[in-house]
UniProtKB/TrEMBL annotation:
Full protein name: GntR family transcriptional regulator
First and last residue of the signal peptide: none
SUPFAM superfamilies recorded: GntR ligand-binding domain-like (SSF48008), Winged helix' DNA-binding domain (SSF46785)
PANTHER family according to UniProt: HTH-TYPE TRANSCRIPTIONAL REPRESSOR RSPR, TRANSCRIPTIONAL REGULATOR, GNTR FAMILY
Amino acid sequence: MYTNGRAQEPSARETVYAKLKEQILNLELPPGTALSEKESSLVLGVSRTPVRESFVRLAQEGLVQVLPQRGTFVSLIDPALVEEARFMREHLERAVVRLACAHFPDGHLHALEDNLALQLKSIEREDDRRLFELDEAYHRILFDGCGKLNTWRAIGQMNVHLNRSRMLRLVADRHWQHLYEQHETIFKAVKDGDADRAERVMQEHLLLGVRDLAHLMDKYPQYFVSGGDGKP
């Protein structure tokens, strides 16, 4: 943000919101964690007001639950919402990768290649958070290169439960090489203009979440909605 040519510092509310959301998405605050306005304000060095406002905003996004007489909790991951977001991403990304094979700017192609190199370094370092960030950036580059960045942003509004399950998968299973190989194959298909291969591998890539979700629910049942109202 800029005012009179000078960068404007983010408000305490925006800073707190961004920090809490990051902690929830990267599982530093796991599903079911009890949240305290007082404790969060002390840890973040702010008054309770921006914390309270952030809790409300996160609740609207489905990341936090406010339960009367019980308190505020990080919401459990809802498998139905995970699958709905995955379904939407699969069909949109298959379409987008076909567009990319028809025409993709050289600058974005180079950005994908650079991203892949950074993914390899993250795998070598076993850095799950960085790999997740690069995974997100990789798919965003595909949408951006096809002039569909607003579509990517719309997907992001539905992705909060899916992204937590994806992050949990990276933490639970550090055999990440096949994820990289799928990204690399998609890159080569886009570079070669091979739309059928790109779409096929993209579908396989996004269908991994179906198998992974069942495994994660079995391994971490306390993190998932298992029926009823989904309350922690």
